[in-house]
Design brief:
The protein has helices at 2-8, 12-41, 46-55, 57-72, 90-120, 134-137, 145-166, 212-235, 284-306, 317-345, 352-363, 365-388, 397-425, 427-435, 440-474, and strands spanning 182-183, 189-190. It is an all-alpha fold. The protein folds into 2 domains: 1-168, no CATH class; 281-475, no CATH class.
């Protein structure tokens, strides 16, 4: 009920994004049902039916990715202060987000089933539609209810599970493994935060061993305490009674351990130190390049072995695996490339405009980089399709065109949703700049510089990947 109320009272933009999730789920569910219809119409060709079902993984992944991006930007399920007191903690809000995503995707699955039955002529009694091949609609055959239910539940289940995994509650306490490293004595490189000042090692009495390292610290604390007592006695005309003298040192050669004074209690109004911000992690860039190279290798090997697909047939499974690896590699390399683009913008004595644009790119590299990489992979695939088939257009029929439009639309919508999320994340910084007197034209110019820099970096990359992928198919 809470998920339904939040869905009903959301803003128009939130409803539009959820409608996009429902449309993506409807298109993916329709393609899955068409793959089932092809399997029912061709029981003697299970390989071709399995290949069609495997190619449905691309729009399925794009729809789930869009659902996760929409759930991240939903303001109704964002954690706020005071909600935990009424039972709406991070775990409950995560469950609400997953439920809302499941409802949107389930609405799309129902629409896909109705559209499929309408095209088959099962709802109105009219003849089947000629826009879709009759073998994909399984005309004249009964649909197995368990298979239909399994295929239609697939998108809502995967989308809600991905949203729950992405928005799961995390421990807000800083990890000890991410503590900044420091240089210890004699330049020893370690994780310790405390740093010794110059000459601390050779200072008189700094390394006097009383009872090992603990005894040294205790003796130092005792000397500091004694010095403080002498200063107090000299400044106070009515000094307090002296503390009892410590017991004399034993004469049997053993070492006496001095009890250190307890540390002073921290004030009640003291605020704990904020954790050190975690630096941007760009170590996935080499892995992304390696996976991208593997994907291009698979595509080259498959293209040399099979060549271009015939009209009306789906490409081989090797092409699907190669493009999947290529998209994964570009998604992994996207944040690192975006971070590098921000660094290049700040090179060679940057002004205020380039410095602002570069800093924003470096800060938003993880939020915008991965959708950019996926969009680059889709653009490269579109270029390969247009190059291989020349001017004849896609030879995959209406279902292939629907799948291509679904993948392209979902990836572009995900990128725009990530840009909206990044804009909301830096709203406080933008407001602070406006209060300091920064003109709005400068902020718009910085946004234009960021877009131009990303286009200048990812544009040639898309062309290189597309040309390398289309080279074996042309020959």
């Amino acid at each position: 009920m809470l998920a339904l109320r939040l869905t009903r009272t959301a803003h128009l933009a939130v409803h539009l994004r959820r409608l996009l999730v429902a449309l993506a789920s409807a298109g993916t569910g329709f393609l899955l049902l068409c793959a089932l219809g092809h399997a029912l119409s061709h029981p003697d060709a299970p390989g071709a039916s399995a290949l069609r079902l495997a190619w449905c993984a691309a729009p399925l992944a794009a729809a789930v990715y869009l659902a996760v991006a929409v759930a991240r930007t939903d303001p109704g399920t964002r954690p706020r202060s005071g909600l935990s007191a009424i039972g709406l903690g991070p775990g409950r809000l995560m469950a609400v987000s997953a439920t809302t995503t499941a409802l949107s995707a389930a609405l799309g699955s129902v629409a896909a089933l109705l559209a499929y039955l309408y095209l088959r002529g099962g709802l109105t009694g009219r003849p089947p539609s000629e826009r879709v091949a009759a073998d994909a609609l399984a005309v004249g055959q009964s649909l197995p209810a368990p298979a239909v239910l399994t295929l239609l539940v697939l998108v809502p289940a995967l989308a809600s599970a991905a949203v729950a995994h992405t928005l799961r509650p995390r421990d807000p306490r800083p990890s000890t493994a991410t503590a900044p490293r420091g240089y210890g004595r004699f330049g020893a490189y370690g994780w310790g935060k405390a740093r010794e000042t110059f000459g601390a090692y050779g200072r008189f009495g700094a390394r006097t061993a009383v009872a090992g390292p603990a005894g040294s610290r205790a003796a130092g604390a005792a000397r500091v305490g004694a010095g403080g007592a002498l200063l107090t006695q000299a400044s106070d005309p009515h000094p307090p009674a002296p503390a009892p003298a410590p017991a004399p040192a034993p004469t049997d050669g053993t070492t006496q351990t001095l009890d250190a004074a307890p540390p002073p209690p921290a004030p009640a109004d003291a605020t704990p130190p904020e954790p050190t911000p975690r630096p941007q992690n760009t170590t996935a860039l080499p892995w992304g390049i390696a996976v991208l190279t593997a994907g291009l290798t698979v595509e080259t090997y498959t293209g040399n072995a099979t060549g271009a697909p015939a009209p009306g047939t789906a490409p081989s499974a090797g092409v699907l695996i190669g493009w999947a690896l290529t998209a994964l590699g570009l998604a992994l390399a996207g944040p690192g490339l975006t971070h590098l683009c921000g660094r290049l913008l700040q090179a060679a004595r940057p002004g205020a405009l380039r410095l602002l644009a570069g800093r924003v790119l470096m800060e938003e590299s993880h939020r915008v980089g991965r959708p950019l990489g996926v969009v680059a992979a889709v653009a490269a695939a579109a270029y390969v399709t247009a190059t291989v088939y020349d001017g004849d257009g896609p030879a995959f029929g209406p279902l292939g065109t629907l799948g291509a439009l679904l993948v392209a639309g979902c990836t572009v919508a995900t990128l725009l949703t990530a840009a909206v999320e990044a804009r909301h994340a830096r709203a406080d910084t933008t407001g602070a700049l406006l209060r300091l007197g920064a003109p709005p034209a400068t902020l718009r110019a910085a946004a234009a510089v960021r877009a131009a820099a990303l286009l200048a970096l990812f544009g040639p990359l898309v062309l290189i990947v597309a040309v390398l992928a289309a080279l074996p198919l042309d020959h």
